[in-house]
Amino acid sequence: MLIEVSIGNYRSFKDKVTFSMVAANIVAKEKELDENNVFAVDNELKLLKSAAIYGANASGKSNLAKAIKFMKWFMINSSKETQSTEKIGVEPFGLSTETENQPSFFEIVFILDDKKYRYGFEATQESIVSEWLFYVPKTRETKLFERVYDGKTDKMEYLSKTFKGEGIHPKTRRNALFISVAAQFNVAIADQILNWLTHKLNIVSGLEDREHLNYTINCLTEGNENQTEIIQLIKKLDLGIKEIKLDQQIGIDIDSLPTDIPIIIKELMLKREAKKKKASSLQTLHQKFDSQGNSISMELFDLEVQESEGTKKIVAIAGLLVDTLKNGKILIFDELDARLHPLISKAIVELFNSKETNYNHAQLIFMTHDTNLLSNKLFRRDQIWFTEKNKYGATDLYSLVEYKIRNDASFESDYIKGKYGAIPFIGNLSQIMGESNA
To answer: Domain tally for the chain?
Structure first.
């Protein structure tokens, strides 16, 4: 379960952004949403099941998702996918002389095996400046390790015996994370954390559906545990689809080739066939009607060729949504609403907010422009976030819970009017063509 993520230029940077899934102590009408939208971790901590992030174009919404995606990738892969001479893929904030030469800051707080962890690092393009890991075994936060680079020497300032990572720090390159190297050497805590990142935290873009579609296709194979739920989800979203059919392409089998063909030629033929072979595709079944409106048969459509872009996206992400819900995962979804009808987006959010469909406390965090979702009947105020560029070009991230508003306030109307900021301020467009055509 995700608690909090912080991204910035360095630890004391005043404009560091922090996104939190911790439920605020809200009174009055919004308490009616608690039963569905919030779940209790213990007597003190409650977390949100979903959160929406709004903001103008170029306000930093997608950059937040990209930063979290980089953090995940770097934690998992820095020990094995990078070379000692490679630069670290961080990008300092270049619009301020105060920060352009400062390290980038990343920190994530999460719950794993009923324990709260806080892990983070600071990095320039040349080296890791600092790295730390804390956890709460019972009631008090305890340091597991802290690593610091002072410009000359990379030091492990503290390493707990509980972490069991002795002797690994000298094997850690300056441009790699200690936690990544420790996992390579089978340190249990490090391995568990990276396994959680790999299998429980997904960051995806709604503009890139091909990878999601392949996952859905895999889930629709006979015997897959998610097959039934995926088909039911697609059928219930009013797409006119009555059934889904997986069209699996069968290629050349080595045993079917003539025995007198040399094995080396057979292998070349198989490789060539594999390159040409079309991946398994999906077909949708629709009702066909006669002139009196009677259903007479079922018509088979090719998903890629004959269905709309919106339908293709829904089918593509159906496997991802079902897997996230069933297995209590965390899904960060940039541009969720792209090519989706507002009611479809709303239905997806309701799946996560419902205690019936989200019984394993999955979490959905999504970036969107869909103001139809800005409703106090769908979200608590602490589930709505905004990104806005300040006058220096840096991103501010803040929650609607910071505003004092009436219980019956229209979130959508007030947002469009600019009461919460995070909207584009558009100049007078009528003057664009005026003078040149005069």
So the answer is: 2
